Amino acid sequence: MEQTMNQATTPNQLGASWKGIAFRWETFLLAVFAFVFVMFAMASPYFLSVWNLSDATFNFTERALIALPMAMLIICREIDLSVASTMALASVAMGMIAELGAGVPAVVVTGLFVGLLCGLFNGFIVTTFGIPSIVVTIGTMSLFRGITNGLMGNEVLNSYPAGFSYFGQGYVHWVFSFQFVLFLGAALLFYVLLHHTNFGRRTYAIGANPVAAEYSGIRVNRHKMILFAAVGLMAGLASVLLTSRLGSTRPAIAFGWELSIVTMVVLGGVNILGGSGSIVGVVIAAFLMGIVTFGLGLLNVPGVVMTIIIGAMLITVISLPIIAQRLKAMRSKRL
Amino acid sequence: MKFAMRIVEQRELLLATVILFMLVVIASINPGFVHPENLASVFNDTSILIILALGQMLVILTRCIDLSVAANVALTGMVVALINSVFPGVPIPLLLVLSLILGAGLGAINGAFVWLLSVPAIVVTLGTMSIYRGVIFLLSGGEWVNAHQMSPEFLALPRQVFLGLPVLSWIALVVIVAVYLLSRFRPFGRELYASGGNPHAAFYTGINVGLTQFKAFVISGALAGLCGYLWVSRYAVAYVEVANGFELQVVAACVIGGISIMGGVGSVGGVILGALFLGIINNSLSVVGVSQFWQLAISGSVILIAVIANSRSERRADRIILRKAIAADALQPNPGTAASR
To answer: Which has fewest Cβ within 10 Å: A132, B5, B12, B151?
Structure first.
């Protein structure tokens, strides 16, 4: 009897109160997305076409696939700046094995395997020597890209087997590309992993306080190792998709992607200092970045100018809540 | 034995030894490389990296990072080049001052976000990095500014030889001395170390940590601006992708030189050696007969090895303190009785 009374009077923090939803980061992002969507629909007559919008997804799915595990890694207070170089290395490995006449499965497995190896290598160095991952992965970023350059020189690898183009160019059903469906599946998987499993809780625990996490029995190093491996594997997967879409491998493939992937994660509300963030936010941020680059492209805005807008978006979106907080604090002080 | 131990513990000496060893190996393959004239030209080649790395060092000391330096170099370089191509009459010293001010302004934008809004530096500079690059495109319309559009004086300055060294090298030397004096003998220099070493303690000793970080960004920006002019003038061309990706080389030079990315640890000597290390590798590959395509892979492995070596020496220092503490405990097994006595 008493218990039910208590339950009724205790405000349910976990439930969705109206205010709680309205002030969440994801809601804010969704509002920005809706606003941008409407603006583009008004600005360009070509925007609201199903096929055009389907094409737009190719702009971000490969990056977003890496952004999912990257979000977990950043929540865990680590980062991997070598993902784009990992993609390049995986792409070269695929190109070389394809040159030897390997079939589609062998090529795909090679790409995934090389990505996984790169991730494990990062994780091994970070956890064994206890070095900040930003430093380690700046090193491996040069190393992996450097091996790519060394192996390829000025060549282009493009003798991929016939069926290989499906991964980057095929459609599962109607306008839904293979990439897009794969991304939705991966997003669901990582959503469950981060928000509904012990593994996910441990990720937050390590990010909030690594020492406390260690003392409460979490194997911190093993956990980080798994996350680095996951990032590497997803980079390998993204490399399969990108290589298949382009149909060729050049040394500069995916150059500079690491920064747009980190931008995507941070824009999605993941704290760069670790401890908080959600997969839903990252997914919305991925859509937002994709739609902005695509819409501006339709309006004939050159690529470099888009980088201004993405950069400004990153800084504004991060600063706005801080400014709002400051104003609120000032007002309450004055009262 | 004790002396040998001290060398291993002193990171700068260790790094210098490694560089000397490297030079000996290179010299055994191609003696021409260690000719003083060639070494001077390697230093000249590395000058811009040294200047940028010293600016980056000040920022990293305060637990921040500036990823926008390369974009700053490119933007300032483009502005100076455009002014020179449209108004060739503007005197070069004025352009130099302008590049310093413009660079400092770009650095101040980074610093203001970090100081006033406490946005993490990596996020701010990630953003400004792409913004500054984009602005170059807006200013130039994607066009290149080529050598024939620049005035002869504009191109000549860094190349002019003064007392046997090009002006570019002299500028690097002046910056080295200035940053050394600043970091060792000025209160501001000590504030940099304090802010990064322990921000809370620094705050309680009356240091404005945010303001210190802001100033570090301004100096780093000003040096990047200076390098903007030097880069464009030296390579005689300005375009959107100038120095693309160079920010990571700059950070790498700091990391190899023993600057802790967690702030508060590092020295000017280390940074110079770190930059020279990369410079020598870049310049010697063709001499030794290694394909230029492997250069990046080699600098990557060097960064990793240097970082691992640094982390091991740090850990050893920890252990020694621990061992002392354990030893002290062993001498006094029960502190309770000792106190009662």
So the answer is: B5
Look up residue A300 and give its amino acid: N
Is the CB of residue A119 less than 8 Å from the CB of residue B301?
Answer: no
Instruction: Determine, for residues B131 and A319 on separate chains, whether the beta-carbon distance falls below 8 Å.
Output: no
Number of residues that this document lists for chain A: 335
Cβ–Cβ of B300/A145 closer than 8 Å?
Answer: yes
Which pair of tokens denotes residue A172?
Answer: 């599962």
Half-sphere exposure of B232 (CA within 13 A, CB side): 38
* Beta carbons within 8 Å of B57's beta carbon, 6+ residues apart: B179, B183, B254, B257, B259, B266, B268, B271
Instruction: Determine how many CB atoms are found less than 10 A away from the CB of residue B176.
Output: 18
Interface contact A327, partner B, CB < 8 A: no
Nearest to B96 by CA among B83, B108, B86, B107: B83
Q: Which of B229, B223, B255 lies closest to B242, judged by CA?
A: B229
> Considering only CA atoms, which of A310, A317, A313, A315 is closest in space to residue A60?
A310
DSSP B29-66: H-GGGGSHHHHHHHHHHHHHHHHHHHHHHHHHHTT---
- To the nearest whole Å, the CA of B185 is away from the closest chain A CA by 29
* Predicted model pTM: 0.83
Q: What angle do CA B56, B59, B62 make, to 5 degrees?
A: 145
State how beta strands B161-162 and B165-166 pair.
antiparallel
Q: How far apart are CA B50 and CA B172, in angstroms?
A: 7
CB contact under 8 A, B127 and A305: no
Per-residue DSSP letter, A157: B
- Measured between CA atoms, the residue of chain A closest to residue B109 is A315
Q: Taking CB atoms and an 8 Å cutoff, what residues of chain A touch B252? A: 138-139, 142
- From B108's Cα to the closest Cα of chain A, the distance in A is 15
CB contact under 8 A, B261 and A134: yes
Q: Is A301 on the interface with B (CB under 8 A)?
A: no
CB of B270 closer than 8 Å to CB of B175: no
Specify the length of chain B in residues: 341
**Are B134 and A305 in contact (CB < 8 Å)?**
yes
The verdict on a CB contact (< 8 Å) between B307 and A136 is: yes
The verdict on A136 touching B (C-beta cutoff 8 Å) is yes
Of B65, B131, B248, the CB nearest to A141: B248
Smallest Cα distance from A254 to chain B, Å: 13
Could you tell me if B51 and B219 are in contact, meaning their C-beta atoms sit under 8 angstroms apart? no
Q: At what angle do helices B246-256 and B69-86 cross, to 10 degrees?
A: 130
CB nearest to B127's CB, from A152, A153, A314: A314
* Tokens at B79, concatenated: 């502005």
Query: To the nearest whole angstrom, how far is the Cα of A129 from the nearest Cα of chain B?
Result: 7
Residue A218, chain B, CB below 8 Å: the answer is no
Q: How far is CA B136 from CA B74, B102, B143, B148, in A?
A: 8, 13, 10, 20
A330 touches chain B (CB under 8 A): no
Check A307 against B123: CB less than 8 A apart: no
Residuewise pLDDT in 10s, chain B (341 residues): 455 555 445 778 888 988 999 899 889 988 888 888 889 999 999 999 999 999 999 999 999 999 999 999 999 999 999 999 999 888 999 999 999 999 999 999 999 999 998 888 988 998 899 899 999 999 988 889 888 888 888 888 888 888 888 999 999 999 999 999 999 999 999 999 999 999 999 999 999 999 999 999 999 999 999 999 999 999 989 988 888 878 888 998 998 898 988 888 899 999 999 999 999 988 888 788 788 788 888 888 888 888 888 776 655 454 445 555 555 555 544 443 333 33
Helix (H) or strand (E) holding A176: strand A176-177
